[in-house]
Design a protein that fits this description.
This protein is mainly α. The protein has one domain. Helix content is 81%, strand content 0%. It contains 6 helices and no strands. Helix 1 packs antiparallel against helix 2 and helix 2 runs antiparallel to helix 3. The longest helix is centred in the middle third of the chain and has 25 residues. It is globular and about 40 Å long.
């Protein structure tokens, strides 16, 4: 594994996470698959693990800057964590090909929608 490439992917993900609130899925998953040659399942699981420290750092800084609405963040994170626990089992059930196509469609749909959003 190329440590320098992994560091670059992490740095890019950190910038995008800080600016856009995303990073793991949008940057790391495609980079892990295309550049580090992991399969889709490993890329998805690894990106979640890698985002733990990124999310903690960005959350601390965003709290200092007064940008977090905890009335939204707490229930959203609780629901997300609960559902993610069970949904992670789908990773075993779905093929890498299905996951890759689904992820690509999701990125395209949200990207196109954001282009036309005010």
């Amino acid at each position: 594994m190329n440590i320098f490439l992994a560091l670059c992917i992490g740095a890019l993900s950190g910038v995008i996470a800080a600016l856009c609130g995303v990073g793991g899925g949008i940057v790391m998953v495609p980079a892990f698959v295309l550049l580090l040659k992991t399969d889709q399942k490993t890329a998805a699981a690894t990106s979640l693990a890698a985002m733990i420290l990124t999310a903690c750092a960005a959350t601390a800084k965003n709290q200092m800057n007064g940008f977090i609405d905890w009335k939204i963040a707490i229930p959203c994170s609780l629901a997300g964590a609960l559902v993610a626990w069970f949904a992670a089992d789908l990773l075993k059930a779905l093929s890498n090909q299905t996951l890759t196509k689904g992820f690509a469609i999701l990125l395209i749909v949200f990207g196109v929608r954001m282009l036309w959003q005010k």
